[in-house]
Amino acid sequence: MVLWHLLHFARWDKYPLLWRSLPHMYSDYLSSSLDRASLQGYEGARWGKMTDPTGRSAPGEINSLLIWQQPHAMYFAETEYRSFPSAATLAKWDGVLAPTADFMASYAFYNASTGVYDLGAPLYPASENTNPNATVNPAFELAYWRFGLDVAIAWRRRQGRPAPAKWAEVRDKLAPLPTAGGAFALYEGIPDMWAPNSTTVTDHPAMSGIFGLLPPPSSGPALNMTVVKNTAEKIRELWAWDDCWGWDFPMLAMNVLRLGDVDQAISYLLDPLFSFDDAGYPEGGSRVPTPYFPGSSSFLLAIAMMAGGWDGEPGPHFPEEWNVAVEGFVPGL
Fold it and tell me: From the CA atom positions of the chain, what is the Rg in Å?
C-alpha cells in the first residue's frame, strides 16, 4: 500500500516529504525481504504486503500471497529519476531495485508447454477475491511486472552496467495479458468474467490500472486500445460499485483520464461511495475502517495527473467549463 500512501508527494513536487520515508523504508526492510524470498525458495527480495516494524509479515493468508506490491519500488525510483536524472539518484535506488528485480525474475515460472513465464498459482491478485490456487497470470500484475523489469533494466543501462540476462528473458517472455469478451480478464482462464450477474466484478477493478496508473509498456507488444477501452466500458457498466472503496475511484479516474474522458474522471472522484468526513478524512465505508488514508493519497495522485499531465500529454486536464490555473506539478509517467 506504500504506493497509495506516498506517490502523490512526488507528483505534487513535495519531495522532501517523500524522502522522509523513501528509499530508506525499503533499505530498512531489505534484510527481512531477502530472508522471506530465500525461505520460499526465491532469489532477491520479496517485499511484504503488511509487516511489523521489524519486517516480519503480518498474519493472514491473503497478505502472504499478494505480489502486486513488488514493482512499487520501480515506480518510485523512475518517478524520482524523471525529476532528478543524476548519478546520485541511480545510486540511491540501485540497492533496492536490483534485489527486487531478482525476485521478480525468480518468481515467474517458465511454462514449457506454452513457452511463456507465468505468474502464479498460487497467488491473490490485487482484488483479493479469487481462489489463489486457480489464479494465474492476473492482468494487472503481468503489466506491472513488465513495467518493473523495464525500469530495472533501464536503471542498469543508465549506469553503463549490464542487467542480468534473466531480467530481460522473463520480461520478454511474460504471458500475454488475459482477455475475455473483448476486455481484460482478472486472470487467465477466469470463468464468466463479464457474464451477467458475475461474481468476479467485485472489489478492486485492478485492470483499470493497466492504462492509467501505469503508462503504456515500453517493451513488448503494444496495448490493444480497443481492449483497453472495452475494459473501461465494461467496468463502468457491470462493476459492483457497492463493493468498491478508497483508491478504486482515483485509479478508475486515472484510467479514463488517460483515455481522454475528463468528465468521467470527475464523476469517479465525486462518486458518493468515495467520501470524506467533515474533518477531511477519507471514509472507509463498509469495507475498511475510517480513516482510510490510501483514499486521500490516491485522490491527490489523480488530481496531480489532471493538473500536471503525463508523458506526451501535458496538463492541465480538467472539464472545459472549469477555470483552472495550475503550477508546480510533476508530469506522470
Answer: 19
Q: Which residue carries 517493451 as its cell? A: 219
Q: How far apart are CA 172 and CA 175, in angstroms?
A: 9
Residues 68-107 have pLDDT tens digits of: 999 999 999 999 999 999 999 999 999 999 999 999 999 9
Please give the distance of CA 221 from its chain centroid, rounded to a whole number: 19
Domain range for 172 is: 12-247
Residue 82 CB contacts under 8 Å (≥ 6 apart), including other chains: 330, 331, 333
246 close to 295: Cβ distance less than 8 angstroms: yes
Give a yes or no: residue 253 inside a domain.
Answer: no
The residue among 329, 333, 275 whose CA lies nearest residue 15 is 329
Confirm if 246 and 200 have CB atoms less than 8 A apart.
Answer: no
Please say whether the beta carbons of 56 and 69 come within 8 A: no
Q: Is 260 part of a structural domain of the chain?
A: no
In a domain, 25, yes or no: yes
Taking a C-beta distance cutoff of 8 angstroms, is the pair 147, 223 a contact?
no
Higher-confidence position of 287 and 134 = 134
| CATH number for 56 | 1.50.10.10
Buried/exposed code over 150-186 (b: 16+ C-beta within 10 A; e: otherwise): bbbbbbbeeeeeebbebbbebbeebbebbbbeebbbb
SS3 call for 318: coil
Contact by Cβ (8 Å): 146, 215: no
Q: How many domains is the chain built from?
A: 1
- Give the percent of the chain with pLDDT over 90: 89
The residue type found at 187 is Y
Q: Is there a domain that residue 252 lies in? A: no
Instruction: For residues 93 and 155, give the distance between their C-alpha atoms in angstroms, rounded to a whole number.
Output: 9
Half-sphere exposure of 235 (CA within 13 A, CB side): 28
- Which residue has 463479464 as its cell numbers? 194
Cell numbers linked to 53: 516494524
The alpha helices in 239-261, defined as continuous H runs, are 248-258
- Find where cell 518493473 sits: 148
Q: Which of the four pLDDT bands, split at 50, 70 and 90, describes residue 169?
A: very high
